[in-house]
Amino acid sequence: MKYYRELRNYCETIPLVDCHDHSGACEPRYTDPIMAVKSGYFTNDIQSVSSDEDIRILDDVNRSLEERWPILEKAWKRTCHTGYARVTKRVLKKFYNEDELTLDALKRMQSKLLDLTNEETFDDILEEANIAARLVNRWLVRNEILDGSYKLTPRARIVISLSNYHVVRSYPELQELVAPLGTTVTSLDEYLDACRKIFAIHKDFGAVAFKDLSAYERTLRFDNPTRAEAEKVFNWFMEDPRRSAAFPDEIKPLGDYLFHEFMRMARDLDLPVQIHTGQLAHMRNDIVKANAIGLTKVIELHRDVRFDLFHANWPYSGELLYLAKNYPNVTIDFCWTNIIDPIYCRNMFKQALSCVPHGKIHGYGSDYLGSVDRAWAHAQIARDNIAGALAEMVELEYLSLNEAREVAYAWLFANANEFFRLGL
Ligand SMILES: [Zn+2]
User: Fold this and answer.
1) What is the pTM of this model?
2) Distance in Å, CA 22 to ligand 1 centroid
3) Which single residue of 111, 142, 363, 370 has CA 20 to 30 Å from 235?
């Protein structure tokens, strides 16, 4: 492609806003070469082409490399062209100077495995990836945030985990959520009050958004139940701490009600809401319930809440393009997607350019847990995808090279910087 190299070089100079990550600590310290090859998402493609049993053997670091290599080799030969495999290839080349995955390569890696628990190493890799800021979503840091002791990983901005607070089904679960406030909740009103306080403390700590990942467990089709319906469920499990409401059907009225209440809190706190839509990690899950189109009623009702919809709704691009085009309060977030399916991204970047305002696209989010070696590789692939898509559009004379540069800058940096008010 005529314009690819030029745009790709330009993308390399653009600082990135990493719109979604999970790094709660500088980690890991790799000790096993096979784990250094397959950790992160790639393990899912290996599982997809082998078996659960093979994964158990590969993960058993007490077995020798020689014993495990035939399983990895067989799988690698059949899955070395996916987006996830491309992450591994780049990591092998960049950090271990290996062009091919072989048993000898694994043996050579053994003595130079990355130690990402070293904060300097961790930050150096972020620097090299030119990642300026990261929106980090953790699950279990409530106490540390509430008492102010939480230590962020380099370049991190905190995002509030929302799902825990509305997927609630029993007295002990609920009390644990509010425990950091030092209060015991006895009614729905008190619970809502406690949540409001917790979210406000997160915002004071520097939170820039909410993040909801309930699509892993429940449908995104939130109904709009009455308070009475919600309170009935709430009061039922509250009156006997040994009770637990059935998930997901029995608690749905309460969960749906709480979700709407939380959207009002997001509006009042003026924080955008990131929602997991599309592709689900960890293999074997029901994708239909995670389709962003299920959020239509929520988006339409809460017009003052800004929704950042994740993972480009893979594989339902059309539905998300529709939502972003037709609702002022919806943006498309390509976090994780650039490595789930690079070609989907290239196609969707092109299609989005032609139908969705380009100011509503967030182009990159690493979505790893630590593992900045992989965040670096992911950043490279995101730049490839955006440069590739825009180069094609310039070739079509859809826009000029200069305009393509502006779009790339917006997608990798400027849109997210403005949307999340990062002030970079
Ligand atoms: Zn994630």
Assistant:
1) 0.96
2) 6
3) 142
